[in-house]
Structures are given as structure tokens and as C-alpha cells.
Design a protein that fits this description.
The protein is mainly β. The protein has helices spanning 3-26, 36-39, 44-48, 62-65, and strands at 80-93, 96-102, 112-116, 123-135, 140-149, 165-166, 177-185, 190-211, 218-240, 243-250, 253-266, 273-287, 290-298, 303-312, 323-326, 351-362, 365-374, 388-389, 393-403, 407-424, 444-461. A hairpin with a 2-residue loop joins strand 9 (218-240) and strand 10.
Length: 462
Amino acid sequence: MPMAITLALTARAAFKAGAAATVGAALTATGANANVGDAYGLGSRNSALAGTGVASSFDGFAAYSNPAALPLALAGGKRFALDFGVLYMDPLFQPIRNVVTSNDFVADTLNASGTVDTSYRSTLGQTMGAATSLFSALNLTAGLATFLPLNQLAYLDTGETYHPEYVLYRARTQRPQIEAALGADLSPKVHVGAGLHIGFSLTNNATVFISSINKPSSMRFISSLKAKVSPFFGALWTPSPDFALGAVLRLPMTSGNHMTLKTATRVGGLGGAFDFNFLATSAFFYDPPAAELGAQLQHSEHARTIAQLDFQAWRSFEYPALRIESCTEGAPPCGVNVTSSLNPGFSLRNVLIPRLAEELTWGPTSLRFGYGYRPGIFSAPPSGAGNYLDPSKHMFTLGAGRQMEHFRVDAHFAYHQLLTEHVVKSPGYENGTGSGDLKVGAPRYDAGGKILGGGVSLSWRF
């Protein structure tokens, strides 16, 4: 084989090995902070009430819903509250067929058409909420709320940068969620609380050496994992047993990764190694700043209405796509110049999420109904470069509960209907050159689907 061809093939193999190392490292970047609570709710009672927990979740899951309600979880002189449950939600997205899946702008292949993978993993995991009294002064109460996946410790996936991608559904609910909080009573009617949403960031360094001659190849990988926390704050006003008004403020959380990759290859017959060095960063998981306001009203002996309005600031959303950058000149040398990645941009918007629920109670039995509407975070369907998707959706919930002698059992069913988006791609390549149906996703497709599931919870107070 001619030396030039050998060099090209070996260099390409080294680059692909280095890229694989980058992706492998970045996929571990997002630690333990998924937001199942935001997507589906924690605890069957809260889920059956469409996530209206700011003014109604007086249980162990208050550590997430509103930490100011933690003291009320121990009403009646109880010292400990424990809630345990199982949650299952299955996304079923519309198939996307007969669209451009590859072109010579985003890959080293000719234009190709086919079917896009829209089969996403189900969310299956166990939820736990706990509250315990710490001090009688101010009725100081500590709480912990968690979600732990059952089919794996964590599943992380960036998705495809240019393919149609439901960006908030690929892996956002496939990792643990941990919330720790404190609540206290300023008076019998005024309650406050604060909590920490816990996550991690990761710094990676990898060195890869590939040899095409009779010498060993090698690879070294070094990672540094650091904890990150994002605070949230809650307040609750309970002027009477028939009315409650609550508010929660959440600060943003970004779990990021910084990767430095040093790759070299030695080709037989040449005196030295060829370097491929570059940097890669990512923000695989992002929780936006949010403000939530909720109220509940007992309007008859057997019925209460609960309403909530959430504001989420998504305009600063950080995409999960890897950002590859050429290395900075210095030691070690950059070697072969690596072109920085060009990730698509999208027009984002902040969203308001209204939620409304009704709870009917006859003695120890409760029946619950809920509805919410969540607008998508993108201002318009992606007609240009890239295909990140987040259709608006209607959320319908139904549930029931029964208080036993020593515990309470709750169950719920949830149905999320994603509104259909009609995506029509503009002519030309992603960089604006050419004409015709050339972009990934061209010529057009529909995005939407549904999410079905439910869960059960058991609650103890003692």
C-alpha cells in the first residue's frame, strides 16, 4: 500500500479513536441530577394532581415540591414520614421516515435518506421521600426526595447533533435525582424552606497512542468528578385549614464536562508520531431557573381544587451536543489542525405551565384528576440547520388513594399528548450553500407522539 494512503488511513483511525474517547468521557459528565420531578412528578398523589405540589404536597416529597411544607408532613405530632413508590413512563413518538439522514456537510458520506431512530427508553424507577423532625424550635424539619432508575444506574446519550432529536426526552429522566431540604415554621400560618438540587461536573484528560508497526498501542484516561449544587427556596401560607398559598424559586443547574484529548499515531517507515490534539466541552443536562406559584382551596366538605402556574426560563438552555475545539498552541503541540465543531443554534423561549387539579375525598378514600399544558421551549419548528424538537403537550392525570390503619396507598395514571409539529426544511446545506432538499431532515416530517404510564406509592407516618 502506498505510504500516503497508509498515513491517511492510520491518521483517520487515530482520530476516530480519539473522538470515541471524547464521547465516552463526555457521556459520564452529568452525574446524578435528572429532573423526573419536573417531567412526571415525584409520588403518585402529586403526579395524579398534575404536579401541583407547591401548595398541596404535605409529605416526604415536599423536599422537592416545596421545602416549606416539610413541617406539615409531620402534622399531628408525628416524628417521621416515609413515602416510597415506583414510576413508569413510556414515550411513543411518531415515526420519521424518508428524510435525509446524512450529507457531505455533517459526515464523510454522500447524501443518504432513511428512517430516524425515535425509539426512546422508558422511564422506570423508584421514588422515595422522607421527612424527620430535627428541633422543636421553629419546628425545624429535614427532608430528602430521590428518584433511582431500576433498569440501570444511569443511561446517558447525547443524541445526534443534526438528526431529529427530542432533546428533553432522550436521557433526561434516565439518571438519579437527589433533593435535600430543610423546612421551618415562622408562625403557625407561615412556613419557609430551602433545598439543594444535587449534581456533578466532570473534567477529563485522555491520552491515546496508536501504532501501525510492531509496537503496542496505549490509552490513558483521567477524570475528576466534582459535586455541584443548585439551591431552591420555598414559602407557604396556611391562613386556614381550607386554604394554602405556596411559592418556590429554583436556580439553574448545568452539569458540564471539559475534555482534553491528546491522540497520536505512528506509521511504519516514518520517524515520528503525528499528533491530533483538541478540546471538547458539553452541557448534557440543564435545569432552567424557575418560579412556581400554587394555591389549594377546600371548597366543600369532600372536594378541593388545586391550581399552579410555573415559569421556566429556557432562553439560556445549554445544548447537550459536544463542542469540539482545536487545541491551543503550546506544549504539547497541536499537530494536525482539527476544525472546530459547528453546532446548530435554535430560537428559544421562556414558558408558562398552567396546572389544575381536583381532589375528592370520602372518608379514607380519595379520587384525583389533573391537567397541565406545557409549551415547547423552541419558538418555531426547526426549518434551518439542526432538528432539536420539543413539541408542546397536554398532560392528563388520574389517580386514587386510600388511607389504611398504618399507611396510605396511592396510584395514578398519566397521559401526555404531544402536539404535532410540521417541520419543513429550507433548501440547501446546513451552512447555507447549495439548493434543493439537502439538509438532514429534508424535505419534511411530522414530530409528535404521546407518553403513557403511571405509578404507585406507599406512605407511612409514625
